[in-house]
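User: What would this chain look like folded?
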Amino acid sequence: MSEIPIVLKIDGATYFEMPQLDGYLAKHQTRLVEASLNEAISAINEHSPGAIVSGAAPIGREIMDAGLQKGLRGIVKAGTGLDNIDCEYARCQQILVENIPDYVHETVAEYAINLMLSLARKSWPVQQTMRQKGWFDITPASLGTELNGKTIGLVGFGRIARSVARIAHFGFQMSVIAYDPYVSAEEMELCAVQKAEQLEDILPHCDVVSLHTSLNNDTRNLIGEKQLAMMKSSALLINVARGGIIDETALLIALSTQKIGGVALDVYSQEPLDVNTHPIISQMISLNNVLLSPHIAWYTAEAGQRLQASVAQKCQQIIFQE
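Assistant: Here's the prediction, encoded as structure tokens.
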């Protein structure tokens, strides 16, 4: 094994650039090695990393087993969600798994609000026409709505949702309702938020529904045909959490039949998204009440700096643990 501890950064299907990570790690007397997912096993055998960093790359048993033979101590998720890492197997093998939970909550909250505003004011069809013709003839179809005074429902009430709640309530005077079985009504009340005991309690009453829960067996397809049918026909649905939380087939039907007012998606069941081959999203791209972005809610200069510094610190803690 190299005298200088190695951190192996594995890139998956979704490219994630971390140009400052090398410098941050050097300050902690560690060296960065980068490899694609296909090269991961070879890189592990060659460099014997003490820690692995992953963004979206799936880290499963094969990589962990190879790492254990070379002295792997832990895995750092360069982000919040851990659904791409087999955490149960890591726990059984006593491999420490860390994420970076608090680098991005304001960043993602701002982006969620941005999507709400863009949908509410129908910015996408206006932009399309302006770029094509130079002007947009105002029609009833282009009539926007205000967020001010409306009701927003939050599914999940972690750090990001709390920031969204603050901006929505104190910025737009919105009423905020949240569903999260793991957060008490008293804790929500401190944030000027009303607790819903069931998901179905918020859907019929909200002008905006914003998803901020993790993806697991309980939340996969949490928003499906039944839930979409309960929403207002004018309601806007925002997802900056994980794609699998929404049943995309049911969503397409709801949009096509105008059961909901619109949707903004930053995440998808399959990433990276190819609108030419994705069987569902490819049918949404022609709809004016659909906004799509490439899992970019977290992507700002400030958040990137915080992320890379925190990843380096976590790697140091893993490698130099006694």
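Residues 6-103+301-319 form a domain with the Rossmann fold fold (CATH 3.40.50.720). If you want, I can go into more detail on any region.
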